[in-house]
Amino acid sequence: MGLEVFRLKRRLLVSCFLLQMLCTAALGGQAPGFSTGAWKRVETEHFVFFYPEELTDWTHSIARRMEGVHDRVGEVVGFVPEERIKVLVDDPFNAPNGAMYSGPLIYLWPTPPTPRSLTGENRGWAEIVAVHEFAHAAHLTRPSRNPARRFLISLVPVPVFDIMQRAPRWLREGYATYIEGEVTGSGRPYGVWRPAVMRTWALEGQLPTYGAMNFSGGYYGGSMAYLVGSAFLEWLIEREDGNDEVLVDFWRRLTARQRRSMSGAFAGVFGASPTELYGDFRVDVTERALAMRDALEAAGGVADGSLFQRLSWTTGDPAVSPDGEFLAVALRSRTVPSRLVVMSTTPDTLTEAQRQYRDAIYEADPEDVRPVERRPRPQRRLATLHATNGRGYSKPAFLPDGEHILVVRNDLVENSRSRPDLFEWAWRSGDLRRITNGAAIREASPAPDASWAVGVQCLHGKCNLVRIDLVSGEIATIAQGEPDRPYYHPRVSPDGESIVAAKQQDGLWRLVRMDADGSNERYLGPDDGASRFDAEFVEGSSELVLSSTVGGIHNLELLHLATERVRPLTRVLSAAVAPAPTSSGDVFFLALHSRGWDLRRTAIAEATPAPPLRVDASLAPAAPKPGPTVPPLAETELGPVESYGLGPRYYVPLPLFDGSVQGWSAGLALRSVDPIGNLAWHVRGMYGSSGGWRGGSAELLWRGFQPWIRIQAFGAEGPTAIGSEGPTSTDASWLDDDYLGGAAMLEVRRGGLSSAHRLLVGGSAGRLSAGQNRFLGFAEYGLGLLQMEGRRRFSQSLGFYGAIGRTGSFNWTTWRVSGSAGARLSRIGLNVTGLISGTDAPSGSAEILTVGGTQPKLFHSGITPFRVAQPALPVGTLRGDQVRIVQAEMTGGLPFKTFFWTGDAVGDGRDWYRLIGLEFERSLAEMSYLRLPSVRARLGLARMLSDPNKGDWRFWATVVYRP
Predict the structure, then answer these.
(1) CB atoms < 10 A from the CB of 126, how many?
(2) Is-contact 368 361, C-beta < 8 A?
(3) 649-962 has which CATH code?
(4) Among positive and negative, which fits the CA dihedral 927, 932, 934, 938?
(5) What pLDDT does 17 receive?
């Protein structure tokens, strides 16, 4: 039992730490802030919603149905949590997503998905994401009935669920995806995208192994847990004669009083291990995919045109110039930021010089073998628009002159939030002009006179059609979308008199046509239960080419505008989308494969009136299956709408540690924060050796508006300044004694893709144990710059600090200037930092500049401007009225950096002090909804290169939290 308890406790603590690391990594290392507007709260019987005022309509729409979600999910899962669930609604990235965190807390992003998204097939985005995330809350919070496990889990400061620790990712996400289908009758289990992926990967021999189902590095690798996981669970239910209670039985066995492994609990229900049955499932899916291929061959075979470019990953939608000579497309990869390229629509061939060079190779070696060339040569890039600091450009649309292209790029707005904006690219000269700013424009189609464009603007959970003035950037809404009826992919007709777009309603995407001002909207095309989208006008304006799901497979269709009759253009087994017609009658399009999307080409003249293949639903999951008829979720009345106020409070204890050559200290912090982080406070206490930080402090931070307000109160004692290793004058710092005081600060932060600014001003008053009063006022300014191109990254920073104060009977001023420049080429990085600081404090006084030790742990470092931290050195190794420091550090794909440090103090009487070392450092952004503060952990080792400690090794470790 002792070993079992130890293993469980270790797994729980490691999981808590990894959760924070993984969530931060997913957000790019910097968690976005929340909406800065007024926040509200509204309650139902089992839920309390927190949301910004601009998302009122979207939030109330799903809140009224949330009790229906609660009841229907509870029926399927057989369990619901007893506590009221917190639901946080906000739009950080202008993208569809949701998450369920420990608490439990559900985080919903309201921007709806497109029909090309794996989640785009639904009765409504709000419903499907709410069902999926509450399914997590219901099945993951089922408690263990083992007393020892329940007790240990209760000791973890951050809420942890027993099942989350034991069920693999494919099982957690696959089960929630299965429930989304059962509760709504739509979603991924009953859509067309999941079977497209399943049969394409099966026919190419790329279905993931059991281990890779959780996550793999291939295309859609992160989605396999949802897609394949849910299909595997449905297959298991089919194997048990349709008895869906077997899944509930499995959860009961997994949480039983008797300790069982996940594999043991699974085998007890299904008769064999998950790895064994998953192998049978892969074979079965492949057989069903082969049966679909045979059916397609019997119906006339594949009609997919010709391969124009073999590509991979998420290839962007192609766009063809008005004259049909050029094609623009966004190329992406897993490791390199995307780039938008322009290429010729004429296939490249060998030049005469290249042909002569190749012939010479084989003439010199007659036994050499010429290569087989069965794929088209990569097209020469005529122009490339590279990503701006990692943010790529997409959704190209040529203007009528063929020389300019409308493109979209995700940009940063307030609080590090992301919104797509519209730009104009002159592809021959490379000039780029911004048209909109923070407007959330997903895509745009220019009018024939190039003075305006119609675009999709997704804000506040609604995707509207807007008219964009291409000169001024002014935006006017012409068709208002609703949360469950978003617009997608609008196109202006060649005569400029009408607009065609896709609109979602009742789970389908249908084409609509309207006048150019948005009036007279009407549905376009047959109402036959298929989704149609991606419509493009064919030369002459009499037809549209579009993507259709007729028969259960994504294919291209032609729709005659006058008669509204359709005829198929392609017949594929995977998926064909994103048509781009040319003036010569050809159509470029994207074709799905297990590496991503190829760019193919077909001719309109090859269209046939033959009906498309209608797949057999019994071949699911390689084929789509019809969803059950599920009634709408019941609606309930909402409670009164209230102001968010200070929000609900979270409380979490956190360990503190600080250790260096001088000593160590440890302690505990109690943190309190609300879900959106408006008001946070810390109470800290530390104790240790005489060389460590000791004392206590309290800190409060208000971020409901800018400038932020930070208030601190403290009683602290710092590391003692050294004597034997220090300079001739070794007056002890006043930090050797108790220091009681407080501080107040105002902080402003602004940032974008290329720069970030931070300004802080503050003041402090305190009293030393010797009876001296100490006062100071200070200001800090920091500027960070970033440039990225492909795998190359360049960064620069500049910092200024100034303080004026009085300690006892003397006045003093201190200043500091710092800067850095760094470059990273692929995995190798080099960064050089410099610092120079000076003071007019009397020589030998307590305010003289002092190098060594760690940063203060109980109050803001701006209160001690004389302290220049270097954890490898004891406090006071260098002292003087001016300090100069240079550090060069290198990273090379390892989890730590190596560095060289040298420092000098004017008036110290010694040469530059030098050392080399290595350090592991990890900084994690705050995630208030997870109760987690900003944290910085450092672990280092250094070797002294200067006397009197030359050859000594020094070690340090520290963990710092900020509210």
Answers:
(1) 24
(2) yes
(3) 2.40.160.50
(4) negative
(5) 35
Distances (CA, A) of 893 to 582, 920, 921: 46, 12, 14
Between CA 393 and CA 480, with CA 117 as vertex, the angle to 5 degrees is: 80
- Report long-range pairs for 427-434 (Cβ below 8 Å, ≥24 apart): 427/328, 427/342, 427/382, 427/383, 427/385, 427/403, 428/383, 428/403, 430/383, 430/385, 432/385, 434/473
Neighbour-count burial for 79-96, b at 16+ CB within 10 Å, e otherwise? bbbeeebbbbbbbbbbeb
CA terminus-to-terminus distance, the chain: 38
Residue from 276, 281, 197 nearest 239 by CA: 281
Backbone angles phi, psi at 293, to 5 degrees: -65, -40
- The pLDDT assigned to 582 comes to 96
Closest CA to 132 of 177, 75, 183, 78: 177
Summarize pLDDT for 118-135 with one digit per residue, the tens: 999 999 999 999 999 999
Task: Specify burial of residue 353 (Cβ count, 10 A radius: 0-12, 13-18, 19+).
Answer: exposed
DSSP 791: T
Is residue 797 helix, strand or coil? Answer: strand
Phi then psi dihedrals of residue 527, to 5 deg = -100, 80
Instruction: Pick one of 3.30.200.20, 3.30.70.250, 1.10.10.10, 1.10.390.10 as the CATH number of 32-298.
Output: 1.10.390.10
Mean pLDDT of 145-157: 82
CA of residue 876 relative to chain centroid, distance: 44
* pLDDT-based confidence at residue 789 (cuts at 50, 70, 90): confident
Residue 214 backbone class (left: φ over 0; alpha: ψ -120 to 50; beta: rest): alpha
Q: Is 794 exposed, middle or buried (0-12, 13-18, 19+ CB in 10 A)?
A: middle
**The sheet that has 878-880: what strands, in order across it?**
867-868, 849-851, 878-880
Residue 447 and residue 417: Cα distance in Å, rounded? 30
Q: In this structure, are residues 31 and 25 in contact, taking their beta carbons and an 8 Å threshold?
A: no
What type of residue sits at position 908? Answer: D
Model pLDDT for residues 290-335, shown as the tens digit of each residue = 999 999 988 888 999 999 999 999 999 999 999 999 999 999 988 7
CATH architecture of 306-347+379-614: 6 Propeller (2.120)
| Integer Cα distance of 867 and 312 in angstroms | 53
pLDDT of residue 26: 29
- Please give the order of strands across the beta sheet that includes 498-505: 487-492, 498-505, 508-515, 522-524
For 47, the token pair is 């839920």
CA 270 from centre of chain: 36
147 backbone dihedrals φ, ψ, rounded to 5°: -60, -40
Q: Is 74 helix (H, G, I), strand (E, B) or coil?
A: helix
d(CA 506, CA 121): 10
Cα separation, 232 vs 224, in Å, equals 11
Q: Report the run of H or E that residue 695 belongs to, with start and end.
A: strand 694-702
Beta bridge partners of 41: 50, 642
What tokens appear for 647 in the block?
């929000």
**pLDDT grade, residue 735 (50/70/90)?**
low
pLDDT 10s digits, 25-72: 222 334 678 998 899 999 999 999 999 999 999 999 999 999 999 999
What is the DSSP pairing of strand 650-660 with strand 642-643? Answer: unpaired
Give me the residue spans of the domains in the chain.
Answer: 32-298, 306-347+379-614, 649-962
**DSSP-assigned letters across all residues of 444-513:** EEE-TTSSEEEEEEEETTEEEEEEEETTT--EEEEE--BTTB-EEEEEE-TTSSEEEEEEEETTEEEEEE
Say if CB 960 and CB 936 are below 8 A apart.
yes
Tokens (6 digits) for 887: 């550090």
CA atoms within 13 A on the CB side of 759: 4
